[in-house]
Amino acid sequence: MAIRHFLSLSDFSSAELRQLILRACELKQQCRNRSMQQTHPGRVLAMIFEKSSTRTRVSFETAMAQLGGHAIFLSPQDSQLGRGEPLADMARVLSQMVDCVMIRTYEHGKLEEFARHSTIPVINGLSDTYHPCQLLADMQTYYEIRGDISGRQVCWLGDGNNMCNSYINAARMFDFTLHIASPADYRPRADILNQSAGKIVVTDDPRAAIQGADLVVTDVWASMGQEQELSMRKQKFRTYQVTQELLALAADNALFMHCLPAHRGEEVTAEVIDGPRSVVWEEAGNRLHTQKALLEFLLCEQNG
Ligand code: CP
Ligand code: NVA
Q1: pLDDT tens digits for 253-304?
Q2: Which residues lie with the beta carbon below 6 Å from any ligand 2 atom?
Q3: Residue 207 sits in a domain of what CATH number?
Q4: Is 266 found in the same domain as 214?
Q5: Whose CA is nearest to atom 1 of ligand 2?
Q6: Which atom number of ligand 2 is nearest to the Cα of residue 226?
Q7: In this structure, how many other beta carbons lie within 10 angstroms of the beta carbon of residue 108?
Q8: Is the pTM above the cut of 0.90?
Q9: What domain range is 212 assigned to?
Q10: Which of 124, 159, 224, 267 to mutate to test the pocket of ligand 2 (most atoms within 8 A of CB)?
């Protein structure tokens, strides 16, 4: 059987993604009433981080501990990756020792290369192009609070970045309409937009994009690796800040999400992110449950 990877949402079918969300809700319930099952004793996840992380690292590590397994943190500084060992070799070696690998890196192509040489499942823990694990948590959060997102309208404000690209994929997989407002130079790639043709509206007008939205999402204006562009980006994105005034144009019961970490006073005001529409803490917490569901799925597939 072919190894399953999770490099983008498109690696799974809509039905599989929906099943993961339902399973994550069950696992969350088990966590709450302390009836978790250690279903994966002895299974090991290697986590390669070429960029910083709080949520992704802690949620994957906790997920493996709660499943009865173990997670190993690896960074370029303290592994041979930083001394030039080829990714393909690392993939072959880790495939002999652990059951699954999560990678956070820059170029998405590195994940694809690793996956090509891996005989165990590879999970994208964020690349410059996609952040699919975050979308699982966002979709669980919407489902729990408002129900099925199918047919709803989502608004993305700001940079057409990795998170925005994963929202574009999600629009197709979870059947919602996505209105993206970005400055012309910061729009998502045409090939990614085209994959979800018919589901996406792109504009440079934040007021038009947010009108009537059921869910409003934003992210930092400078992603990891773009820090030196921040002052220029602050000027370009100024009018895309999610303010109370802008949010008032969304649907009455609209939710606000942000993958975090957030910069209050840049892409979102403190009033919004700390206000009643914001579900960012539930969203962050759901990283644990969705990733546990994902690990269960990939580890079982590997057994099959
Ligand atoms: N949202 C997210 O992936 O957070 P970290 O960078 O802290 O992992
Ligand atoms: N777009 C952000 C997401 C961080 C979780 C980044 O890539 O830095």
Answers
A1: 999 999 999 999 999 999 999 999 999 999 999 999 999 999 999 998 766 4
A2: 126, 131, 161-163, 219-220, 223-224, 259
A3: 3.40.50.1370
A4: yes
A5: 223
A6: 8
A7: 18
A8: yes
A9: 134-283
A10: 224
